[in-house]
Amino acid sequence: xxxxxxxxxxxxxxxxxxxxxxxxxxxxxxxxxxxxxxxxxxxxxxxxxxxxxxxxxxxxxxxxxxxxxxxxxxxxxxxxxxxxxxxxxxxxx
Length: 93
Description:
Elements: E1 2-10, H1 15-23, E2 28-33, E3 40-46, H2 49-59, E4 66-73, H3 80-87
Antiparallel strand pairs: 1-3, 1-4, 2-3
């Protein structure tokens, strides 16, 4: 599975509706409204790079209110959640 992290700039007045529209796109797993120089961080997951390109270029970028995107492809994942799951096998509270 390939994960892309997409930084989204949106028209300020439309951020909530832009976030909702992006969240409805197949392949988008999470949308975060954030502080700082970008408005939204979007996680996209797909099996092939071509699918990432389709999701970002052909759908996400065309959501009304999106003004700019910057896409980063993840090449290695290290998650506290994954480590907790691995070490909690057989453990009960």
